[in-house]
Amino acid sequence: MSDLFKTLLTGVAYDAFMPGGNSGKTPCREQIMTKLALFKIYVTDQEAASRFYVDKLGFQVAEDKKLGEYRWLLVRPPLGDGLSLNLEIARTDEEKSLVGQQAAGQPLFSLSTDDCLREYADLQARGVQFEGEPQLMPWGTGVMLQDLYGNKIYLMQEPGN
């Protein structure tokens, strides 16, 4: 195989294309996606959304930039692995209809903690609304909370923590 062809196949297992290589399956990639980096949440008020995620949930502002009329606002958990929430103004009718409904009544995402009962008490004291109290389940201890628009977020502690 020529060096040029190998260069063109950067990131793909070369033997996948050779006779008997990879048994005719789809080529194997040497590099894979490593993490989820950004998640968009439609909001009607970026300031109010930022206050909720920062003041009530304890997130940090990761980026806050004005780009003309557009505001790029990212928040993330203080000990997060790089995943940020993009608090995006809903502009179109379709986007506005999604505010508070992005997961159709299911949890939009989960937050992991090492002590669900402590977090529950702390967040409740800050005015966060919950749908009941933490429950022990086979997958850990957890409770559903709501953001300021009604999006559900599951707070969970894995078993053994």
Q: How many distinct helices?
A: 4
CA-atom Rg in angstroms = 21 Å
**CATH top-level class of the largest domain:** Alpha Beta
Our measurement of the CA-to-CA distance between the termini, rounded to an integer number of angstroms, reads: 52 Å
Architecture (CATH level 2) name of the largest domain: Roll
Q: Count the beta strands.
A: 9
CATH topology of the largest domain: 2,3-Dihydroxybiphenyl 1,2-Dioxygenase, domain 1
Largest sheet: 5 strands, mixed
The global form is globular
Strand content: 25-35%
What is the fold's blueprint, element by element?
Elements: H1 3-8, E1 38-43, H2 46-56, E2 60-67, E3 70-76, E4 84-89, H3 93-98, E5 107-112, H4 116-125, E6 129-130, E7 135-137, E8 140-146, E9 152-157
Parallel strand pairs: 1-4, 5-9
Antiparallel strand pairs: 2-3, 3-4, 6-8, 7-8, 8-9
Overview of the structural elements:
The protein has 4 helices and 9 strands; from the N terminus they run H-E-H-E-E-E-H-E-H-E-E-E-E. The model is unreliable at 1-18 (pLDDT under 50). The chain is α+β, with helices and mostly antiparallel strands. Strands 5, 6, 7, 8 and 9 form a 5-stranded mixed beta sheet that branches. Strands 1-4-3-2 form a 4-stranded mixed beta sheet.
List keywords for this structure.
3 domains, 2,3-Dihydroxybiphenyl 1,2-Dioxygenase, domain 1, 9 strands, alpha+beta, 5-stranded mixed β-sheet, single chain
Provide a concise account of the structure shown.
This protein is of the alpha+beta class and 161 residues long. The protein is 20% helix and 32% strand.
